[in-house]
Amino acid sequence: MVIEHVAGDLTCTVEAETPLSEMQHTLAGAGQMLALDPPDDGTLTVGALFDAGVFGPRAHRYGLPRDIVLGVRLRLHDGTAVRGGGKVVKNVAGYDLPKLVTGARGKLGELLELTLRLHPLPSATATVVAPLRDPTVLERMMPACVDTDGERLLVRFESRAAAVLAAQAAAALGDAAQIVADDEELWEEHRRRQAGLELHRCLPADGPRVLAELRGAGATRVTGRWARGWLFADVPAPAVQETGLDRRVLARFGA
Questions:
Q1: How many other CB atoms sit within 10 Å of the CB of residue 123?
Q2: What CA–CA distances, in Å, run from 147 to 60, 106, 199, 226, 231?
Q3: Is residue 97 a contact partner of residue 85, using CB atoms and an 8 Å limit?
Q4: Which CA distances in Å does 132 have to 2, 21, 45?
Q5: Residue 181 carries which DSSP code?
Q6: What structural domains does the chain harbor?
């Protein structure tokens, strides 16, 4: 793995077969992180993460895998190795190949190497646990995570001011809100809860309605990014309809 400063951003280039946990451990030694925290039992590789487009609670602030990938080296199904993207955030003319292959689940080829944007490890964290409610009151505080476990609102702050911001958020969320200062175990358990669940997307404002519908459909586990409308549940997600562009790209480059 190679870490570089490029045009003001810190990036790394890593082989796709590298375990995510190994990469995060190495980055932590440099005070950095890959701001993606999906469920990981220790076997998830960086390539599998981007191939499936999986993500965890930090996606609220830092975005999805498509927002973090800068460049890829890819083996197409005819055996041709190609590169796309580069090492800076704004470097693409035409269609963005790294974003195209992220989440494609191998339909366009095998990921071999990725160049990724990094973020500094937070110097402190604090979490507010409160009854489920509209999270828009928290927007000005810029939380790192705004999640739900299906019953509660989980709001994490990651900065030097984490404790102060958590206190402000707790005051805004009402008397029932509680602050958890030593919160890593809480979030590790929360990430594990997402494992094996299917993604259901909705508008953020529709979250309460979709949550009720999921429960009505028999869901016993619901979790996800409450302020983004990305909910995971143990009931099947609606099938994604292929567009005309999807079909043309698969016909040209797919298996």
A1: 11
A2: 8, 29, 14, 5, 9
A3: yes
A4: 42, 31, 33
A5: S
A6: 2-120 (3.30.465.10), 125-233 (no CATH)
Residue 81, helix vs strand vs coil: strand
Q: Give rounded-to-5 percent helix, strand, coil for the chain.
A: 30, 30, 40
pLDDT value at position 89?
A: 55
CA dihedral 122, 114, 64, 78 (to 10 degrees): -170
Q: How far is CA 240 from CA 50, 199, 243, in A?
A: 18, 11, 9
DSSP secondary structure letter of residue 204: G
Which segment of 92-96, 133-137, 149-153 scores lowest on mean pLDDT?
92-96
H or E segment and range at residue 4? strand 2-6
Confidence of residue 199 (pLDDT cuts 50, 70, 90): very high
Tally Cβ neighbours within 10 Å of residue 96: 16
- DSSP letter for each residue of 117-177: E-EEPPS-EEEEEEES--GGGGGGG--SEEEE-SSEEEEEEESTTHHHHHHHHHHHH-TT-
